[in-house]
Amino acid sequence: MSTSVVRAAMVPVTRQMRAYFAPIDRTTETPAIFDPGLCGVFPLMSPPAPWVDLGWIENFTRWYDTTTATVRSGTKGLAAAQFRGPAEAGVSFTFRQWGKLQMALAGGSEHMNVLAPASGNVSPSPSGGTPEPGAAVLAGSTASELVFGAGVASSFSPGCLVAVDVDYQQQTGYVGSGIAAAYVGNAASVKQDPNYVRRVTFNVGRVAEVTANSVLLAQPLLGGVPVAGASAQVIVAFVDREGGSFLQEWSALFVAEEESGGRVCFYYPRLSPNAGDVGAGSDKTFAREDIVAIAPGCSAISLQAAFVALPSTDGNDGQSVLCYRSYFPAGMAAAY
Asked: Which letter does DSSP use for residue 286 in this model?
């Protein structure tokens, strides 16, 4: 008696791809981990820390340009063995939503917060001039609530954006609480600006409510709980720049949510924005934005992003890996 194999639901079908990013510890180069065994039912609308949901993306393209060469031997020069050449891989896509992280990742270098200018701004700058002084954040603050002294909270208003971080005190190296936002090689280059860390920090949030002594944020601060000595300043805009020497690194997870046939995930332990390396055989040109018509006379502006994959070591066998592709089959689908 033979048993027929049902081969249904073996073609992954999806409507859109979703992107999640998590900061890398730049001091140790430790990536955020996506373990498919523990995260097989990764909650798309409420991802676990440290992953941050950056919304639906389009035009998702992965490329791989690692060569495989052969060792030949014998009088006929037959292939006797194979080896891999330099590992080259990357990914590109389009962000449909704009925000602090989306702009930073599409830009690739230092990403700036434009701090609310002081009255009588004496040093105008394309990335923001002299700002209003910061308000000291007190002990007891959390990633979702900032505590201030009596009367200070009233200087903030519902709906405003805030940057929360320490004063710059001539330190060198990576700066930015929770997430490395820039690298200072020479303190003189930032002109002893006490606001510099808040100009670049990822520790930002939008005020949802103002109480007598605190403000409540609509989303938790990206960099986590404010550190001792932090201050808060109002942000009026975000700005990125073509150029700059800082190279960002992030862990990334791309999920094709299943409509039928299972879920597919692409996990990159280490990605660095690199618009100059947009694919195998590319002519190295790259459009920074994409204009999409949504109605006559009305278009949406999308952010184009491209990344090069950096190697990470797999702890199970010590292999150097650029990307992991996971497939979670639909219920009762055939195994092969």
From this structure: -
In order of start, what are the domains of the chain with their CATH numbers?
17-71+81-108+247-328 (2.30.110), 112-238 (no CATH)
CA–CA dist 37, 323 (Å, integer): 16
Per-residue pLDDT reduced to its tens digit, 246-269: 889 999 999 998 877 788 999 999
Closest among 235, 226, 234 to 138, alpha carbons compared? 226
Instruction: For residue 50, say if its preceding peptide bond is cis, omega within 30 degrees of 0.
Output: yes
Encode pLDDT of 1-11 as tens digits. 555 556 777 88
Would you tell me how many other CB atoms lie within 10 Å of the CB of residue 249?
Answer: 18
Task: Name beta bridge partners: 263.
Answer: 328
Q: Note the pLDDT tens digit of each residue in 51-62.
A: 999 999 999 999
The percent of the chain in helix, strand and coil, each rounded to the nearest 5, is 5, 40, 55
Residue type, 272: S
> 216: burial class by Cβ within 10 Å (0-12, 13-18, 19+)?
middle
